Amino acid sequence: MQRLFTDHILRKTESLNGTWNFRIDPENRGLDEKWYLGLKDAEPVAVPSVWNTQFGLLQYCGAAWYEKKFHTEG
User: Fold this and answer.
1) Which of 19, 36, 57, 73 is deepest in the core (most CB within 10 A)?
2) SS (H, E, C) 4-51
3) pTM score
């Protein structure tokens, strides 16, 4: 993704591009099983990217989860 600016006049910006954890959720169980508390059995994936071209998911159409840990100031 191309950024149109590197800094904002009111706040600092930070790119979140890089490696994220990724897991598909074909049965839509993620919310009920609280995957947002920690994504188990995840695979690393580059962000930004098109995940359908990875992991043999060319025909997959459904929910998916991403997880990335980062620190912010303020």
Assistant:
1) 57
2) CCCCCCCCCCCCCCEEEEEEEECCCCCCCCCHHHCCCCCEEEEECCCH
3) 0.78
